[in-house]
Structure prediction request, 367 residues.
Amino acid sequence: MAARGADSTAVAPLRSLFVCLLVALALVPVAHAGSNLILGVDDDQARWMNTAGAVTPIYRELGVRAVRVTLQWAPGQNALNAAQRTQLDRAGVATWGMRLVVAVDGPPDAPPADANSREDYCSFVGNLVRRYSTINDIVIWTEPNSATFWRPQAGAPAAYEALLARCWDVLHGARQNVNVIAASAPHQNPAAWFAGIGAALKASGRAQPILDTYGHNAYPETSGESPLVKHGGNSIDQGDYDRLVATLRSAFAGTAQPAPGERGATIWYMEDGFQTKLTSARQLYTGAETDRYAITEQKQAAQVGAAIRLAYCQPLVGAWFNFELKDETQLSGWQSGLVRADWSAKPAFYAFRDALVDVVKHRVACK
Prediction:
């Protein structure tokens, strides 16, 4: 399984099957999310598609209130380049009327871990929000507690705390109501990670917050594991909500950083997903499956529905995002999409929409 990222083949002309899907979806009543829980998808198609807005009908049919895209920062870069502006322009059209959430990361071996690179990175995200008045949600890096995305890990909690602090100042200086979102991975000892950030914050003596929302990726141990399962050790998944809240409250006690439930701070599950195994349409995919725990499409639908309803019942969770909208064509990547590589809907597409309607209408029975 490769590092997460959407399939860049999406820039190709839309297949006739995609057009057929849009026609079929147009015949179904559209669901609109309306509760406090934001339901969204992680999807870089929005910024890659040459036809701006081509994917919008699918977003609207799902009823998503938010779409998260990624953007790559490079060391020494302090402003958007022309290609990035074009991509965000496309994404803005595709997500019109929704929240466009932007996660900004960069090369894992050169994260913004010193004063100069922090200044460049935070200037870069500051330039982004000043240019785009409709973008208010910025995720600072991707899974910085994982060596897949931030190397080396030695000293990373303190470096990330300093990055959050500087970017919070820059972003709130650009726009008061901006939402600075931290990031964390579920299986790389997030409890120790947050404790390290909290210790660095206390040592700094800072009198301002460093983030507005606690972003956390809530993947289960395997795609077939129930979202309800609780864990010990180094994992904090969606079923470990109580431990996550307790961890965050302990880590930031005695600091200026609000814990979840204080001054509007919430937890956003920025990524969750369940990989499916190939049972049909093999011609759409290349390579060999690398996830031996991949599940059937029907099981994925059940998992998506259960995860959304569980998030609804976790009162300090403000958002849940499915990774991703469309399967990657390379089987070494991710096949956790709500639509297949040819844009045909999986059962999980309808499970997502059905769960969203239950959330909107408050039909979820919480224990």
Observations:
- The two ends are 35 Å apart (CA to CA).
- The chain has ten helices and eight strands.
- Residues 5-34 have pLDDT under 50 and may be disordered.
- The first helix runs from residue 16 to 26.
